[in-house]
Inverse folding.
């Protein structure tokens, strides 16, 4: 199956700093990438959808200036959590879909962010 | 507000039994239905997807969809301890903007 690589898998940062998470599609061109957030014992909540070369579409309640998404190429999307606070601590997961496997989306391994 | 409902469990079944996981959804316009398995601390992995009413089988897994009742289920035959995980139901118009249920925790005991 298609492979989506997410990096880093774990990151601890100080409050007020920024953290960048990368999501790469390794063997297909990801026309669309999705970013999710999952708090403990809760389900995945979609944060934003990004299409290559265009601005991301954010879900209601997600601050676009705080969660910066860049999808500059067909194989890479990045999520930057700016001025992170402890309440941003969560499991962040990307998924990607695109040709030729455009009937399903594939998830990255996830990033556990802890803000101290 | 589009919703996907799952019983949080845990659902406990003995090894070798059939595990039945259920999911209901509120949006009648939904076209795509997915079951994901998520181990603790890991990202979800796709088990099956189904688009049409009826049953779809893949190995030990069978997905069942009833659009009239807005109900989708996952059956796991010959359950194994390694199947112990949280199973997430996801529903959407296509693969875009999937709405996930909160998941059902399955425990398979030897």
């Amino acid at each position: 199956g298609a492979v989506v690589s997410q990096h880093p898998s774990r990151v601890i940062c100080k409050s007020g700093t920024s953290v960048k998470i990368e999501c790469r599609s390794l063997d297909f061109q990801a026309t669309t990438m999705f970013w999710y957030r999952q708090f403990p014992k809760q389900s995945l909540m979609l944060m934003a959808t990004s299409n290559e070369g265009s601005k991301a579409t954010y879900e209601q309640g997600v601050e676009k200036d705080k969660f910066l998404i860049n999808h500059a190429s067909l194989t890479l999307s990045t999520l930057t959590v700016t001025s992170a606070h402890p309440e941003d601590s969560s499991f962040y997961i990307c998924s990607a879909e695109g040709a030729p496997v455009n009937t399903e989306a594939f998830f990255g391994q996830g990033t556990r962010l802890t803000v101290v | 507000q589009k919703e996907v409902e799952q019983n949080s469990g845990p659902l406990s079944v003995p090894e070798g039994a059939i595990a039945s996981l259920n999911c209901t959804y509120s949006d009648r316009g939904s076209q795509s239905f997915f079951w994901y398995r998520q181990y603790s601390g890991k990202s979800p992995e796709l088990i099956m997807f189904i688009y049409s009413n009826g049953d779809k089988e893949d190995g030990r897994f069978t997905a069942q969809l009833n659009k009239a009742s807005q109900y989708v289920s996952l059956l796991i035959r010959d359950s194994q301890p390694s199947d112990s995980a949280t199973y997430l139901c996801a529903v959407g118009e296509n693969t875009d903007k999937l709405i996930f249920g909160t998941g059902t925790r399955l425990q398979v005991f030897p």
Observations:
- Chain A has a mean pLDDT of 89.
- Residues 69 and 79 of chain A are 5 Å apart (CA to CA).
